[in-house]
Write a structure and sequence with these properties.
Blueprint lengths: L6 E8 L3 E10 L4 E6 L8 H12 L2 E11 L6 E3 L1 H14 L4 H8 L6 E3 L6 H66 L7 H14 L3 H18 L6 H22 L2 H21 L4
Parallel strand pairs: 3-4
Antiparallel strand pairs: 1-2, 2-4, 5-6
Helix pairs in contact: 1-4, 2-3, 4-6, 4-8, 6-7, 7-8
């Protein structure tokens, strides 16, 4: 079962004096790339948060955020009244201003506000980690649902290429017959042609245009893509490699075709394959 690298997960918890919202968003990336947006009080645990996310999400450009809404009466910052009064007295000595305006200026001065350092209890940290896991699980569920959509599209594209390959096989005998006829007409007016030598050269030329191996390899690659798609593990890199191999065989078919109806089918194959390559970048 494949998973998309695109996803969103969220978990919300309420503590005695605050509401905490944990959000995780991921987009496609070649490796794991985590960007964090967390309050200062949790900074000491940032490496642990990153490790937890990297172990479970494996790949993707991940935005991890923690938002806190304080609901208690205590605030992390308090006014230092002595310093504020001192600032107001000093400003009054300079200018006779409105007290409210002077107060607004005073609280912006250095040390007018004192910040109390918050400590996190082990119990709170344990709850935070539990809800990070819940947010990750929510995101993985999102990834799985997106993966199902991708899988359905991949199966459609691979089946389309398989159908086009069958049409190519149906045209192959006609193609070789027309090439042979065209070559025979080209040398019909040439005098002193060695029939045996011409037959040898014709066979050699037709062998160069033979696409039997390409058809067999392309069919195997298409089957292998579906097999990997339905495996238990999501492996976007492997699917990408198989898509490249499919592309090589399709390109060789096109270069050897030398027959307009077959080349048209090859163009349709390439169109389907490009859609696969675009989507496979989003697979975990």
């Amino acid at each position: 079962m494949i998973q998309s690298m695109t996803g969103f997960g969220k978990s919300v918890l309420s503590l005695a004096d605050k509401h905490i919202s944990i959000e995780i968003k991921s987009l496609n990336s070649k490796s794991i790339d985590i960007n964090t947006r967390i309050p200062q009080v949790y900074r000491e645990k940032e490496l642990d948060f990153r490790k937890l996310i990297a172990e479970q999400l494996v790949r993707g450009k991940v935005d991890f955020s923690i938002f806190i809404e304080n609901t208690g009466t205590q605030t992390p910052s308090k006014i230092n009244p002595n310093i504020v009064k001192s600032y107001i007295e000093q400003m009054r000595a300079i200018v006779d201003g409105d007290l409210t305006e002077l107060l607004k200026m005073a609280v912006r001065m250095p040390d007018a506000l004192q910040t109390t350092s918050e400590s996190i209890s082990e119990e709170e940290l344990s709850v935070i980690f539990q809800h990070i896991n819940l947010a990750i699980a929510d995101l993985q569920n999102f990834r799985t649902q997106e993966g199902k959509v991708l899988e359905k599209d991949f199966v459609l594209r691979i089946n389309n290429i398989n159908r086009l390959l069958q049409e190519v096989q149906g045209l192959d005998e006609e193609r070789l017959a027309l090439i042979r006829e065209r070559l025979e007409k080209a040398v019909a007016d040439i005098q002193n042609v060695d029939a045996n030598r011409f037959e040898q050269e014709l066979i050699f030329y037709l062998e160069k245009l033979d696409i039997t191996e390409e058809k067999i390899r392309l069919k195997k690659h298409l089957d292998y893509f579906l097999e990997t798609l339905h495996s238990e593990e999501s492996n976007g890199r492997k699917l990408s490699f198989i898509a490249q191999e499919i592309g090589r065989e399709v390109n060789t078919l096109g270069s050897k075709a030398n027959f307009a109806p077959m080349q048209q089918l090859v163009v349709q194959m390439k169109d389907e394959l490009e859609k696969i390559k675009e989507q496979v970048l989003n697979v975990l």
